[in-house]
Amino acid sequence: MTTDAIRQREQRTGWILVTPALLLLLLVFAYPIGRAFWESFFTKNLGSELQPVFSGVENYTRMAFDGRFWGSLRNTTIFTVASVVLELLIGMGIALVLNQAFRGRGAIRTIAILPWALPTALIALAWTWIFNDQYGVVNDILRRLGLIETGINWLGEPTLAMIAVIIADVWKTTPFISILLLAGLQSISNDLYEAHALDGATAWQSFRQITLPLLMPQILIAGLFRFAQAFGIFDLIAVMTGGGPGGATETVSLYVYSTVMRYLDFGYGAALVVVTFLLLVLAVAIANFLLSKLRARAAGVESR
Amino acid sequence: MTTIDRPLDAQADEIAVAKQPPKPGFSWQRLGVPIAAFLIAVFCLAPILWQLLTSIKVNADISAVPTVYFPTRFTLNHYTELFTRRPFLQYVLNSFLVSILSTLLALGLGAPAAYALARMRIPGEKAVLAGVLIVTLFPYILLFLGLLEVVRALGLGNNYLALIIPYTAINLPLTILVMRSFFQQLPRDLEDAAKVDGFNTWQMLTQIVLPMTLPALVTTGILTFISAWNEFIFALTFITREDMKTIPVAAAQLGGASIFEIPYGPIAAATVLGTLPLVILVLLFQRKIVQGLTAGAVKG
Amino acid sequence: MKPPRVLRKLTTFFQKLRRSRFLVLWIAGLVLTLLVVVPAFSQQTVTLNFLIGAPERPTWEPVIRDFEATHPGIRLNFVEGPNATNAVEDLYTSSFLLGSSPYDLVYMDIVWVPKFAAAGWLTDLSDKVSDADLTDFLEGDVAGGRYQGGLYRMPVRSDAGMLYYRKDLLDQAGLKPPETFAELLQISQTIQKSDVVPWGYLWQGRQYEGAAAMFVEVLAGSGGFWIDPQTKAVGLDRPESVQAVKFLLETIQTGVSPRGVVTYQEEEARRLFQSGAAVFLRNWPYAWPLANAEDSPVKGKIAIKPMVHAPGQESAACQGGWGWGIAKTTRHPKEAWEAVQYLTSIETQRKVTLSTGYLPARRSLYNDPEIVRTYDFFPAMLNVLENAALRPPIAQYAQASDILQRYLSAALTRQMTPERAMTAAANETRRLLGTA
């Protein structure tokens, strides 16, 4: 057998191994998004008795003037930025602590993963109970501290409801970030710190000058992952507030879900899916650009 | 990736030992770190423990103002209520069925693909990998509309397949990424030797590669099981029959959104039961979960 | 070494095949038996499934028991839904959408009807019911079951918004109950000045469906309209509509209504009124027995009347209520119709009303001696119910209502002027309906 033939056979076997997975991915990921692009050019709702009627870009012009869409986009942005920033800060703190040596570290590390592994919908129920206006433990603590007299209606006030869902999300997903950052911390050689310490640098200086730059790829990757997830947040908010009160916590994904499952407005729902998708792609492209720039700089630093 | 072949803790311990301040005596780190660690534990555990406590309180204590932190009366009524008023055992079984089957499928489809992507030079490999990576960033809300149509067209509504198929797919990217990084670390010599011995690809895979990657499969399987167990939006949309619902959806609908008579106790009990299998998984496989997660994410 | 291995594999393969052939035969046999046995069993009793919110179980359970006792061939299977009615609506919606609905009967709120009918999920009942059959039912309730000429719901419970007032306070001040918006404001201020009550008028201003229902009454009472179901014309930016919003704003500006009224739902408003803190309240009939309960401070001091209106216009009450329909996909349409007839019959409605106090959808029951003995206020309610106005019976009602709620709330919380808010609401509604 020639090497060419062997190579061809290898390629064929390779494709045979990859194809089933690829087909499933195409069915579940590519088809729905492609289909959404197509459907977004049709009016298919209760007004058309659920029959598709071609309507060009009408769904998109409707979206441009749809106050609820812009409101949900604003809510999504606030939620995403606030929760990802908080998670990165707290996650970094936790990772730094878990990277130290102390007794019982293994146990604490296990505990620190726990929130990430639990079902979001159930965690949302737990936080709904914690923020309950009458019997919630948050109100009870505030009352005992003398900060409030009567219970605050956390999930019933627009701003407070947003704060409540952000807190729940931070609790749930910070562990994911601290796991990734901890792995990054562990791959930083200790020699760097020692050399730096010999130069008389303080702990804060070595954090700024060694830890942070070397950890930047992990920070960006974790941030990107979390950004995408937070941008599409559904279960947590659906269970905690259902998007209320008065739409104050309605994110784009909740709006998409209502549009399709409640209003049966398939064409408009498809257009919303398309716009969400494009916004996400844009964000990923920006993050990817930053990441590659950073990698290039890191490579430069190492070779110097 | 160095974190894969060496246990994390061992590696970290070396660093930590080296980091110990040379001079004995007082340092803020000695005092501060355990306190911080304790706070982390409280932060992570408190909401779960609070739910556990609520689930065994009697109703009068649940709705007591001020809140009862150390109840003197305990009850298991909320748990029995779950099983008598609702088909809760059925929910648990549904969750297990769907999660286990989709995990096995994801491994069965993902591991061979990962092997091919790690070992065989196939044209378009880069594009496939990039696609797999990007897909991990897609929120499920982008998929549910199209999948709803597929489910309707195939008549899969209220069929476990309507969950098993998407769950398998959403777990494939992670499976492929994690397994690929494991395969890449496998010494190539072994397979070359096998080839010299006249094994064909299939035999080599089943008889040599598979046994060696069993630990990696377990790691990946745990991650996919967790994500299938936790999934909400597809389970909410594609299953409407009461006796086919999975735990997260059933528990959320137990609550309803009404102001009147929310069954706090049973909800807390449902939370505890629904999270218990995962708590056990985390306790048993903490290290594997961390390895898998870092391999899946950082490799990208 | 190699050939034997191949052989061995081949033999195991064939063994497996034989075993699996057995399996196939066995499964085929099982399926056949099931196909034969299951229908034979199920032919004896027909099971009709339906979904109802959990709090309604005590209302319907005795009715179901009676029905099953008198109709031995039919079993009514109650599936318990979540507490909130919109969650129940969502469950019905998603199960119909999947195409394999497990439900035969549909217990519907009035605003679901156009949506469910337009989606083709309900059986048209119009050829089963004659006009004579419908004469006893309240007009608004029947109209609420119609969509584009078809009849999709048989009413069982009625509901309408009304004005509650403190008879004692008005008598004290020597005033007659108000007819117009201006009179309501005047009377409120007069009584508020004498420091007997802090507030004049309580209504529902939170951003939710209840506010849309409340607004329909003010809007129709001002001579305006929301959406014409026939022409799909939108009337929200007409002067009458802006005037309606201005009236609501005025109640807050003049201190007749508390600022917090923009966050009130029915319960907040009722509790405050029941504590004796206001002269007027807009609410549904459910508040009557509660406000007249033994421990209520306003017990025996209140009365009801149709909503106030602009001079030269008519009162309007927002129509609510529940009824039964039949799923199009049901495999037992005959039995389902039998059940619906029973569930909406005079006897059933009387029984339900007597046990719960819900308003029936049949006129004759409002003067039924047995019912009036228990609920002496029923004849007065009938007067309000006859004036009830529907929320626009269009298929996209839920979305249109959402638009109105958002802009109404923006105007009430002073984020937008009434003119700007209503213009924006009208334009957005037109884009939704494709009439822009």
Please write out the topology.
The complex is a heterotrimer of chains A (304), B (300) and C (436).
Chain A: H1 3-39, E1 42-43, E2 53-54, H2 58-64, H3 67-98, H4 105-117, H5 120-130, H6 137-144, H7 158-186, H8 190-198, H9 203-231, H10 235-240, H11 252-261, H12 266-303
Antiparallel strand pairs in A: 1-2
Helix pairs in contact in A: 1-12, 2-12, 3-7, 3-9, 3-11, 4-7, 5-7, 7-9, 9-12, 11-12
Chain B: H1 2-5, H2 8-19, H3 28-55, H4 59-62, H5 77-85, H6 88-119, H7 125-135, H8 141-153, H9 161-185, H10 188-196, H11 201-230, H12 233-238, H13 247-255, H14 264-298
Helix pairs in contact in B: 3-14, 5-14, 6-9, 6-11, 7-9, 9-11, 9-14, 10-11, 11-14, 13-14
Chain C: H1 2-42, E1 46-53, H2 57-70, E2 74-81, H3 85-97, E3 105-109, H4 113-118, H5 131-134, H6 139-143, E4 146-147, E5 150-151, E6 154-160, E7 162-166, H7 167-172, H8 181-193, E8 199-202, H9 209-221, H10 239-253, H11 266-274, E9 278-283, H12 287-291, E10 302-305, E11 317-326, H13 333-343, H14 346-356, E12 359-360, H15 369-374, H16 378-386, E13 388-389, H17 397-412, H18 418-433
Parallel strand pairs in C: 1-2, 8-9, 11-13
Antiparallel strand pairs in C: 3-11, 4-5, 6-11, 6-12, 7-9, 7-10
Helix pairs in contact in C: 9-10, 17-18
Fill in the keyword field for this structure.
heterotrimer; A: 304 residues; mainly alpha; two-stranded antiparallel ribbon; 75% helix; globular; C: 49% helix
The number of helices of chain B is 14
- Regarding quaternary structure, what we see is heterotrimer
- Please give the number of β-strands of chain B: 0
Helical fraction of chain C: 40-55%
Unreliable sequence segments of chain B: 1-25, 256-260
Order of helices and strands of chain B: HHHHHHHHHHHHHH
Largest sheet of chain C: 5 strands, mixed
Number of distinct beta strands of chain C: 13
- The backbone outline of chain B, from C-alpha atoms, is globular
By secondary-structure content and strand pairing, the structural class of chain B works out as mainly alpha
Molecular shape of chain C: globular
Gyration radius of chain B, rounded: 24 Å
Give the percentage of residues in beta strands of chain B: under 5%
Largest interface: A-B, 107 and 107 residues
Brief account:
Chain B starts with a helix and ends with a helix.
Write up this protein:
The complex is a heterotrimer of chains A (304), B (300) and C (436). Chain A is mainly α. Chain A has helices at residues 3-39, 58-64, 67-98, 105-117, 120-130, 137-144, 158-186, 190-198, 203-231, 235-240, 252-261, 266-303, and strands at residues 42-43, 53-54. A two-stranded antiparallel ribbon of chain A has the order 1-2. Chain B has 300 residues and is mainly alpha-helical. Helices cover 76% and strands 0% of the residues of chain B. Chain B has helices spanning 2-5, 8-19, 28-55, 59-62, 77-85, 88-119, 125-135, 141-153, 161-185, 188-196, 201-230, 233-238, 247-255, 264-298. Chain B is globular, with a radius of gyration of 24 Å. Mean pLDDT of chain B is 83; it is low at 1-25 and 256-260. Chain C contains 18 helices and 13 strands. Chain C has helices at 2-42, 57-70, 85-97, 113-118, 131-134, 139-143, 167-172, 181-193, 209-221, 239-253, 266-274, 287-291, 333-343, 346-356, 369-374, 378-386, 397-412, 418-433; strands spanning 46-53, 74-81, 105-109, 146-147, 150-151, 154-160, 162-166, 199-202, 278-283, 302-305, 317-326, 359-360, 388-389. In chain C, strand 4 and strand 5 (150-151) form a beta hairpin. Chain C starts with a helix and ends with a helix. At the A-B interface, helix 1, helix 3, helix 4, helix 5 and helix 6 of A face helix 2, helix 3, helix 6, helix 7 and helix 8 of B.
